[in-house]
Amino acid sequence: MKKKWMSTLMIPVLALGLAACSSDKAGSNEDKTEKGNQSVGESVDYKIIGIDPGAGIMKATEAAVKEYELNDWDVVEGSGAAMTATLKKAYAKKEPIIITGWTPHWKFSKFDLKYLEDPKGVYGGEENINTIARLGLAEDHPSAYKFLNQFHWTADEMADVMVKITDGEDPEKAAKAWVEANADKVAKWTEGVEKANGEKITLGYVAWDSEIASTNVIATVLSDLGYKVTLRQIEAGPLWAGVADGSLDASVAAWLPVTHADYYEKFDGKFEDLGPNMEGTKIGLVVPSYMEIDSIEDLKK
User: Fold this and answer.
1) Distance CA 243, CA 232 (A)
2) Taking every annotated instance into account, which residue ranges of this chain make up the domain ABC-type glycine betaine transport system substrate-binding (predicted)?
3) Which domains does the chain have, with CATH numbers?
């Protein structure tokens, strides 16, 4: 009797289990269908993941929201590190995400990403990264000035340093290794530059991975030339103000003509623009390639 009771009991239990599984699968399919029917905005809660408030790319993104009439959208302030952490989490799950992006940046070598087309040209075309110096640097430190004026490299060269730093290597060590491995390139930068004798140089940079890489490389070469170098990581506004008031000697992190346009105009005449140290950079809205959108216009759908 006991065995018969057990078998009789198992039939409805099994039936309930199968029904539950069937219900779960149906729910899962319904969830997928619901997600598939979502607009781009709904899929990301109408949020664009940004970086530091006041950064040029954030101002450009706010302008893009207005220009493209993305009235329901918010630009989330944070930091470069927070933005890439959010991207990494979403990418691992193949979830939709929209971020403020720029190149050169290591995220493009780690993830398959694409820029959204900008038919209204809010973000401008290609940008350059310029070197700016305080007035009087050429007279006070001619060797440092000459070297900074001759400094020029490519996005691929920067990426060699940037990726190592992102992977956990100390920025100073990564920069020194790159300088040692690229002696011919460094020789062009320092051609005709005389050695210093312990003079102090202070460089400013923003906390972007690209600028951490470039500034540490510059600091390494200046140290090898005999300078005592101090690095100051600050936001873009204080950086430009520092070069303008002379508390910073120089920076190789001026993104122009769009990203830092406001600062260039504000402090025009109070600094010296040494021109591009890298051409062909870019800013805009970036998404994973698995997202089926191609233009900022698509965000209105």
Assistant:
1) 12
2) 39-180, 200-301
3) 40-125+285-300 (3.40.190.100), 128-281 (3.10.105.10)
Reading the block at residue 54, the tokens are 């006041």
Q: Which two tokens stand for residue 181?
A: 């491995």
Q: What angle do CA 69, 114, 279 make, to 5 degrees?
A: 95
Q: What is the 3-state secondary structure (H, E, C) of 18-52?
A: HHHHHHHHHHHHHHHHHHHCCCHHHHCCCEEECCC
- Nearest CA to 263 out of 245, 281, 279, 247 is that of 245
Angstrom distance (rounded) from CA 156 to CA 289: 21
Assign 80 to helix, strand or coil.
Answer: helix
**Beta-carbon contacts of residue 63 (< 8 Å; ≥ 6 apart):** 122
Count Cβ neighbours within 10 Å for each residue of 131-148 and write b for 16 or more, e otherwise. Answer: bbbbeebbeebebbbbbb
pTM of the model: 0.76
SS3 state of residue 8 = helix
Span 7-20, pLDDT tens digits:
333 434 334 343 44
The label of the residue with tokens 């103000």 reads 241
Single out the residue of 256, 166, 153, 171 nearest to residue 212, CA to CA.
171
Q: Where are the alpha helices (DSSP H) in 182-233?
A: 183-189, 209-224
Local structure of residue 295 (DSSP, 8 states): B
Q: What is the pLDDT of residues 18-64, one digit of tens each?
A: 344 444 444 444 444 445 568 899 999 999 999 988 788 898 999 99
How much is the pLDDT for 53? 85
* Residues 263 and 237: beta-carbon distance below 8 Å: yes
